[in-house]
Amino acid sequence: MILGIDKLGLSLEANDELLNSIVEIGKSHYPNEFGGFLIGNYSDDNKRLHITDMILPENFKASRYFFERTTKGIDKFLVNYYKETPKKFYVGEWHTHPDNSPIPSFTDISAINAIINNQNACLVNPVLLIIGYSKTQVNFEFYVYFENKLYKYGTC
Ligand SMILES: [Zn+2]
What we know:
By secondary structure, this protein is α+β, with helices and mostly antiparallel strands.
């Protein structure tokens, strides 16, 4: 699927297979939240992002309304991706909102600030994928943090 933000001239492509597996893994942790790291590559002008992979955290704390991961144990993998061709990067994170909508909470927004301030990552415009789901439906939204604001990707 391809999404975009006209105002910023940004677009994002994510493999359907990858999205499906993220949703399935997320749902398997019901009723708790769950999440992971998104990996991808950017076009030469940095305007187009292709999300190709994800990595699951080895260390995390989760409850129905809370998810916190650490990079403990997977730092190595995040760095290894940088050496691949075409170059892949840690581009953002995903997490679920069980029985809820895919709207960022205050905690989500402060978590983004923590990601940006992480000197190891050098992630300027992190992407946030939130999957809201119930027994009968799944809704997900992609967001990007751009110049101190969170923008939602829409259909192109
Ligand atoms: Zn959240």
